[in-house]
Design goal:
With 280 residues, this protein is of the alpha+beta class. It folds into 2 domains: 152 residues, no CATH class; 117 residues, Macroglobulin (MG2) domain (Immunoglobulin-like, Sandwich), CATH 2.60.40. Helix content is 40%, strand content 19%. Strands 3, 5, 6, 7, 9 and 10 form a 6-stranded mixed β-sheet that branches. Strands 1-8-4-2 form a 4-stranded mixed β-sheet, with no helix packed on it. β5 and β6 form a beta hairpin. 13% of the residues are buried.
Amino acid sequence: MSREGAVDRGRIRGYLLRRLGDDERQTFEESYFADDALLDRVEAEEDLLVTDYVLGRLSDEDRRRFEQALLGTPYYRERVETTTRLRRRIARDHKVRSLGRGAPPRSGGGLFPGRTGVVVAFGLLCVLLLAALVTALRLKAQLATLRAELSTVPPAVVTAAGGGVVPSTPSVVLQPGEGVGVSVRRVERLAGSPLLLVFPRHLLSGEARSWRVVLREESGAVTWDSGDQAVPSGASADMSVRLPAGVPAEGRSGVTLWDGGTPTFSTLLEVAPQPSAPPR
């Protein structure tokens, strides 16, 4: 059953502008992950939000929220830049057509004098609609991938202060190394055994509300994502995440710690097989 009627437009825009609290935001995300109709409404409202920002139709508060929460991400920055460029081209073409209508027709001016601007404007509108469609399809594909990941049982995530860590699970503390460049942390692991990744609390900002860990192959493909996790209540409590057995595979993988929607720390994790004990 669709939940489209149960969510008004104001709540959708409040979600996009990060006005909802953590609990309400999580409930809303669960709703549109399970409802394609609501997902379509979120995508449509997202298009309107970007357009309202470019045209200056947002209130001062909404404009500040858009710039603070969304404009810093490559996804929204690209959409704003694309919409702005198309708007300028359409406005420039409209001005040319206006001037052309006021000028006297010239002999030999072509087969369709005065219609060139209309054709160009129509072409630009088609390009704008195509760009919005491609962006919406890309977002829908990403959400479908997340929905598939959410359908699986999520791994247990615990903080160092919260306890519950299995003592036999190898712990790997990840933090910036000395010198310049991305550091490499090497760990030996029995085949198919889990790992516990630990991140010092100082890697997050003091205003951090959530964090997440993403693992990628050397090719850039995501191999595991912890999803958003609440920041530990203790001021100095470290963040710990227990990976599923066998994740990541042997070799090098990229590990990124996200502070809300911003990557705050990246490193390379090299997993090597643990040598078996020599026979007695």
